[in-house]
Design brief:
Elements lengths: L11 H7 L7 E6 L5 H14 L6 E6 L2 H18 L7 E3 L4 E3 L5 E6 L3 H5 L6 E5 L6 H10 L10 E6 L8 H8 L3 E4 L2 E8 L9 H8 L1 H4 L1 H8 L14 E4 L7 E7 L6 E9 L3 E10 L4 H10 L7 E4 L4 H9 L3 E4 L9 H12 L2 E5 L3 H9 L2 E3 L5 E5 L5 H12 L13 H10 L1
Helix pairs in contact: 2-3, 12-14
């Protein structure tokens, strides 16, 4: 099938802008949640670069290899399958490479693997997804690597992200402030901001969730609905760090949050000395049916005896997973479904621990870094979290909040004189 025979629907505003990307060395596409940023760029790179142009190289990156595998790889696979081209490609799932019949290739890498990045050659196009995860020096390195001969047009670097935390991401904020055009590293740069309104394919459920932020929380409303830079305040968890390795723990299990339009999230939770909580993101994927989820759990090595605590709002899903042989149980909720006291109790139990997150768990890091208490428009702080992009943290809360409380015994040291009187009385 030739590329000219394909008919694929695209979000008009971002896709039209991408068609002029050859005008800039750097193309910055940012904005609110569900605004078709990644969806549009994935389609554009697959159809207009990878398949249409022979002998070009594309590098697609996120901060870690697991993150790029579960997001960008799956998006590219979706588009190639949608267009009937997947079966014509050479696919190496181990090295995360896809090669077209015309010898164009896509290489997926995590930017935490610097040695892998140094060995990548032949790159004409770079896409950095979730650019708020990376440092500016990572972009400099990618800019240098994007240097292969291109007989078709100039080489190009693309960035996509939500405008969160302008203090930590000041360098990205400066890039967006040059909109619609400017220069970066003395090269032409183009900028486009989009919101959910620019995505004509957005599911009604997700559209309602994003529009609900206008009445839920002013800061989240700016970032995820309006696509504006803002720093979340009233962040709930501030006692966490990143670790390269997880030590032996005393107890462990999994928290599971179901989703479809929203991601299904499976988080490994390990507790050591009842003081330290270690977390590792095992799964964070959208559009998984329950059988898909069961298959993925098997692929991830989840043991049939391992305890899994799942959202009790989906008893049919839990029953199906249990029938597949997994040791899954509903979380324990006080009151009823959606009970606020259950949420607060789970949060308070998590806050008792020093939290250590494996460095590969990029979606969990993104959630915990902005998970916050609700603010009213009068800036009053409410005793409930904003219900948005909290799927991994809900999974953690199901597991930690459902663990039996350890019995507490207070040991009192009795003075010698009192012990003597007690002995005489006996």
């Amino acid at each position: 099938m030739g590329i000219e025979t394909l008919r694929v629907r695209a979000a008009g505003k971002p896709y039209r802008w991408l068609h002029d990307s050859h005008q800039g060395r750097f193309n910055i596409l940012y904005g609110g949640a569900s605004s078709a940023k990644s969806w549009s760029l994935g389609l554009y790179l697959v159809s207009e670069k990878f398949w249409k142009l022979p002998g070009v190289g594309l590098l697609i990156c996120r901060k870690t290899k697991p993150a790029v595998r579960t997001s960008c790889w799956r998006l590219v696979e979706h588009w190639l399958s949608e267009m009937g081209l997947w079966s014509q490609c050479q696919v190496n799932r181990t090295n995360l490479t896809i090669t077209s019949p015309s010898k164009s290739f896509i290489q997926f890498v995590g930017l935490d693997d610097t040695e892998k990045l140094k060995s990548v050659e032949g790159i004409n196009y770079v896409w950095v997804e979730e650019a708020t995860e990376i440092h500016e020096r990572d972009l400099w390195q990618l800019h240098i690597r994007c240097r292969a001969h291109n007989p078709h047009e100039q080489n190009t670097v693309f960035l996509t992200f939500n405008p969160v935390d302008p203090i930590r991401n000041e360098w990205l904020k400066k890039l967006t402030q040059m909109a619609p055009k400017g220069t970066y590293l003395k090269r032409p740069a183009r900028v486009l901001m989009v919101t959910y309104r620019d995505n004509p394919f957005l599911a009604a459920e997700e559209r309602a969730t994003i529009e609900g932020l206008a009445d839920s929380d002013d800061e989240y409303d700016k970032i995820y609905r309006q696509g504006k830079w803002a720093t979340p305040s009233g962040v709930i968890y501030d006692n966490w760090d990143l670790v390269e390795d997880i030590p032996p723990v005393d107890d462990y299990g999994y928290g599971l949050d179901f989703g479809y339009v929203n991601p299904s999230s499976l988080i490994w939770c390990g507790i050591k000395d009842e003081t330290d909580l270690y977390l590792r993101e095992m799964l964070y994927e959208t559009h998984l049916h329950n059988q898909d989820l069961i298959d993925r759990m098997g692929q991830l090595g989840v043991g049939k005896e391992d305890v899994i605590i799942a959202d009790s709002a989906e008893p049919a899903y839990i029953d199906e997973i249990a029938e597949a042989g997994f040791n899954v149980h509903p979380c324990i909720k006080s009151g009823g479904q959606g009970d606020k006291s259950f949420v607060r109790t789970g949060i308070n139990r998590i806050k008792r621990y020093r939290i250590h997150i494996h460095q590969d768990s990029t979606n969990l890091q993104a959630e915990i870094g902005s998970y916050k208490w609700r603010h009213t428009k009068d800036d009053d702080l409410l005793d409930e979290p904003v219900k948005f992009r909290d799927h991994a943290l809900d999974a953690v809360r199901y597991y930690v909040g459902s663990r039996p409380e350890s019995s507490e015994t207070t040991i009192i040291q009795v003075p010698d004189w009192l012990q003597a009187e007690l002995n005489n009385a006996m």
